[in-house]
Specification:
heterodimer; A: alpha+beta; Ubiquitin-like (UB roll); Fumarate Reductase Iron-sulfur Protein, Chain B, domain 2; five-stranded mixed β-sheet; about 25% helix; about 10% strand; B: alpha/beta; Flavocytochrome C3, Chain A, domain 1; five-stranded parallel β-sheet; four-stranded mixed β-sheet
């Protein structure tokens, strides 16, 4: 395959500079390669050329080579991408192309990472619950109703959204509690499934999958090769419905940003009051008010008893964005080692207790 | 014994090799039957080649046209396979596929719907009625994801009941099986390695289901992924099972051959239907030289007339670019072999100079976007480079149609999906592969489970066999004098692509067998650089011997079958021979030599014969068989 086609399609092959991460969990570094690149090739072709020439043991996952299986996920110049869908023509002639393994997952070897985190989270996500009493062949659904879930079922499980998500990228400590965008859209898919028998998908996503950690920076949507609108169509609808039950500062922030002029709505819950609590907001704009309309005056009274709901607390914190309005993803494109804090650069932890909206079930009773 | 002590051991009732549609369906069935089941996958869970299937899954549910029935589906399948199909498999497939599709909905699948809320079905070549359940153009992905999620749900059940997700069904991802281990003539287990660590693993199990897919990776131009190295075919052969129909491979005449980023990807026939023409490297529109006499009346003999056809099909004859697939493939093949091909070994398919860019984008939106996105090829500006691409193998493990149990002298071995043979005869209809996976995956899994139940004693893995397997697996790493596996793979692909490709000739097949013989010696001495951890060179070195033995089967069977039928085209025997319809060619392994036998096809039951017109049967059956058919018809009257 190699030599016979060097003159094919007119353009002569050129040599291009690559930096590819080689190593294993004990360490490694970027190795320089000068590789022949022909017209019309993608990054995966170059990796294959390296394997068949100077680096026969270069480890890299791949399968379909047509953007359909989601195996060849790597980070190219710091951006999570599918190697089979990244054309060499998208780089300038003199550009050095760096290829590194997915940063969020442990290294196995070279470009291969241990993505078992994702399969564990998949197992923790409750499966489709078939409607009782409906025999196979009797399922009836309208096209318009299945389309919303079908969008999420386009997912090829490349895990680019998982690796890019700053909640777990460089934050190993968040992994146990956070399932990640791939499994938020799985929950959304089942939530929107016309015949799924479970009705607690949203609550489950909030309570068990860590939906509340997501602060909708849309990085996942950005990298999705299937162009699934993960944030807009999956995560935000899940958060918005869940807000009736749980306080979620991000939805509050989202409301501030996206619905300026509308009455901000927030809600709260304590262990004593799992029900919804809502009253009209009265606090000055820009401050977080816990006054909200209530469906259940008893629950409200109980919640109000523990905390001064009219006090002023600082705005929820937001991460530092770069000039393009996005989170810098890796040190390759960022001015310091490791990724930025998702809570902003000027927040120090732990936060002072008075900034936390928490009512202790016993102590705050008075 | 020092080597065997370092081998991780597992005990299972049923081991399923392959995690595509057939493997996952088999595993679900074995687990539902209460068996402790392992699924072994060369890739990550859910990445198998099944995801590439676009069209849909054929099942006579009759949702769009209520006249559809299993009988019509059966008839279509037999016609498509040119009556070489195992009739019983075609029958079971046609009868059971609707249930298998409906069952997927209970696992959570979301197919496209009809207006009244049922599963929508689309038309497809060779199917009399709209029959393919589909989800846009990603039906394969839906199928594999659904089965994957069903397995997860079973694991969740097991966790609730037994405290562990892996209690009764476990997925071993990125694990390759290199050898089946036998206790006498009974399957006793499977030996392999973890791709990640290079550590060896031994599965002790009385029943093994092969669901490893196809063999396309032995071809230069293929739409198949790296996994398609014929592992299951080779494992079966080495375990004493037999392969049938190995000469039948499905090629598409116009797959992309250049640029490399899209090599093997199919270019739909509608490009030619909409005005695309084939040109050689001299710029000549060569198809006019390849119109066979029988087609002269329907096809234009001047460019002027051919070009008028697009506007006025009633008063002009069709352009020769629209000849049947095998004629187009033969023409492309001849041009390339005569030295008038493109540098990449194809010809030009030009639509850019034939239609305005706007019109091309309007008529062929998905083609335009696919090539723009994957390869930065603008089909409105430049011609495409196309040639025949290997797509699917009809041949495979010879199995009992009802249980999927392999024939030959081995017990406890089952096969389902592309790795099994017989279902599709000499040619597969689009849409029949996805339903094949489900129907026979379930059957193989269920029968493997009951086979395991029925055993009085569990077979034991013999220690020497394990030691041999370890030595064989480590050999390429220990040699440093042999050739690179990548070079050997390229040479094998060149032999198969050039000499055992879409159009075959006796001389070339003889030549191919000689070259495969040389390659066998070179592959036996292959050496892989590097260590055992995730070393793709080593993995390929181990896959090569599978690819090689399966290629030998194909070449031998292709040389022997002196007729053209479905996926086997002999230039020196261009017509279908009714006598050959009664013959299956059976490959077995003696030592490391492929042995070829002939075996009569099972005889179709009279009531199934009665589904066809006598006139149609006359095209396929010998006079002798027709006389029997007539006698039967008389008897019934």
């Amino acid at each position: 395959m190699g030599t016979e086609k060097s003159q094919a399609a007119g353009a002569p092959a050129t040599k291009r500079q690559f930096r590819i991460w080689r190593g294993d969990e004990t360490g490694g570094d970027l190795k320089e390669y000068l590789v022949e690149v022909k017209e019309g090739e993608v990054v995966l072709d170059i990796i294959h050329r390296l394997q068949s020439t100077e680096a026969p043991d270069l480890a890299c996952r791949w399968n379909c080579k047509a953007g359909k299986c989601g195996s060849c996920s790597v980070e190219i110049n710091g951006k999570p991408k599918l190697a089979c869908m990244t054309r060499m023509s998208t780089f300038t002639e003199d550009e050095t192309i760096s290829v590194t393994p997915l940063r969020t997952f442990p290294i196995v070897r070279d470009l291969v990472t241990d993505v078992s985190f994702n399969y564990e989270k998949a197992r923790e996500t409750p499966a489709f619950a078939p409607p009782p009493g409906v025999t196979p062949g009797d399922y009836r659904m309208q096209q318009v109703d299945v389309e919303r879930s079908q969008e999420f079922r386009k997912c090829i499980e490349c895990f680019l959204c998982q690796t890019v998500c700053h909640v777990i990228r460089d934050h190993e400590e968040n992994k146990p509690a956070f399932s990640g965008p791939r499994y938020f859209i799985r929950a959304a898919e089942l939530d929107m499934h016309p015949l799924d028998a479970r009705d607690d998908r949203k609550e489950y996503a909030q309570a068990e999958q860590g939906l509340g950690y997501c602060n909708i920076t849309k990085c996942c949507t950005e990298v999705c090769p299937e162009h699934i609108k993960i944030t807009d169509n999956g995560i935000i609808p899940m958060k918005e419905r869940v807000v009736d039950r749980k306080y979620d500062p991000l939805v509050w922030l989202g409301n501030k940003i996206f619905r300026r002029g509308q009455v901000p709505q927030t809600s709260v819950t304590s262990e004593h009051s799992p029900g919804a609590v809502r009253t009209p907001a009265t606090g000055p704009p820009g401050f977080h008010s816990h006054a909200g309309a209530s469906h259940d005056p008893k629950a409200e009274a109980q919640a109000q008893a523990g905390v001064n709901w009219h006090r002023e607390v600082p705005k929820p914190t937001a991460p530092t964005l770069d000039e393009s309005g996005r989170l810098p993803l890796t040190e390759l494109t960022f001015d310091r080692p490791a990724a930025p804090s998702p809570f902003g650069e000027d927040v120090s932890f732990p936060l002072p207790p008075e900034h936390l909206n928490y009512a202790h079930p016993e102590q705050d009773k008075h | 014994m020092t080597t065997t002590t370092r081998i991780e051991r597992h005990h299972y009732d049923v081991v399923v090799i392959g995690a595509g549609g057939a493997g996952l369906r088999a595993a679900i069935e074995a687990r539902l039957a209460g068996k402790k089941t392992a699924i072994i996958s060369k890739s990550l869970f859910g990445k198998a080649h099944t995801v590439m299937a676009e069209g849909g899954a054929a099942a006579a549910m009759g949702n769009v046209n209520s006249r559809d029935s299993w009988q019509v589906h059966f008839r279509d399948t037999m016609r498509g396979g040119k009556f070489l199909n195992n009739f019983r498999m075609a029958e079971l497939h046609a009868k059971e596929s609707p249930q298998r599709i409906w069952e997927l909905e209970t696992y959570g699948a979301l197919f496209d719907r009809t207006k009244d809320g049922k599963i929508s079905q689309r038309n497809f070549g060779g199917h009399e009625y709209p029959r393919l359940a589909h989800v846009g153009d990603r039906t394969g992905l839906e199928l594999i994801r659904t089965l994957q999620q069903k397995i997860v749900s079973l694991q969740q059940e097991d966790r609730r009941e037994h405290g562990s997700y892996d209690a009764r069904i476990r997925v071993f991802a990125e694990t390759t099986i290199t050898e089946l281990l036998l206790d006498g003539d009974r399957v006793a287990g499977a030996f392999g390695y973890y791709r990640e660590s290079g550590e060896f693993v031994l599965f002790e199990a009385p029943a093994v289901v092969l669901a490893t897919g196809g063999v396309g990776r032995s071809y230069k131009v293929t739409s198949n992924s790296w996994e398609y190295t014929g592992d299951g075919h080779a494992l079966a052969l080495r375990a004493g099972a037999t392969l049938i129909n190995m000469e039948f491979l499905q090629f598409h005449p116009t797959g992309m051959v250049w640029p490399p980023s899209v090599k093997g990807i199919l270019v739909t026939e509608s490009v030619r239907g909409d005005g695309g023409v084939l040109k050689n490297s001299e710029g000549k529109r060569f198809m006019f030289d390849y119109v066979p006499d029988v087609f002269r009346k329907q096809y234009a003999d001047t460019e002027a007339e051919a070009d008028r056809w697009y506007e006025d099909p009633d008063n002009n004859r069709r352009p020769p670019e629209l000849l049947p697939r095998d004629e187009v493939a033969r023409a492309i093949n001849s041009e390339v072999k005569a030295g008038r091909g493109t540098p990449a070994g194809g010809v030009y398919l030009d639509i850019a100079s034939r239609l305005p860019a706007e019109e091309i984008r309007r008529r062929l939106p998905s083609m335009y976007h696919q090539f723009k996105e994957l390869a930065d090829v603008d089909i409105t500006q430049e011609p495409m480079e196309v040639g025949p691409t290997c797509h699917y193998v009809m041949g495979g493990v010879e199995v009992d149609p009802d249980s999927g149990a392999a024939f030959g002298h081995v017990r406890g071995l089952f096969a389902a999906g592309e790795v099994s043979g017989g279902m599709h005869g000499s040619n597969r209809l689009g849409g029949n592969s996805l339903s094949d996976l489900l129907v026979f995956g379930k059957r193989a899994g269920g029968h493997a489970a009951s086979y395991a139940d029925g055993l009085a004693s569990r077979p034991r893995v013999p220690v020497p066999a394990v030691e041999t397997a370890v030595e064989t697996a480590l050999a390429p790493l220990q040699r440093d004098t042999g050739e690179s596996p990548y070079v050997l793979q390229q040479d094998l692909q060149a032999v198969m692509g050039d000499l055992v490709g879409i159009i075959r000739r006796e001389g070339e097949l003889v030549d191919a067998l000689a070259r495969l013989g040389e390659l066998r010696e070179r592959v036996a001495k292959v050496s892989a650089a590097g260590g055992r951890r995730y070393n793709p060179g080593w993995h390929l070195a181990l896959d090569l011997r599978n690819m090689l033995v399966v290629s030998e089967c194909t070449a031998k069977a292709a040389l022997e079958r002196r007729e053209s039928r479905g996926g086997h085209t002999r230039e020196d025997h261009p017509t279908m021979d009714r006598a050959w319809r009664r013959v299956n060619q059976v490959c077995s392994l003696e030592g490391d030599i492929v042995h070829l036998d002939r075996k009569p096809l099972p005889r179709m039951r009279p009531e199934l014969f009665a589904l066809f017109d006598r006139a149609e049967l006359a095209k396929y059956l010998t006079d002798e068989e027709l006389a029997e058919f007539d006698a039967l018809a008389k008897e019934e009257r």
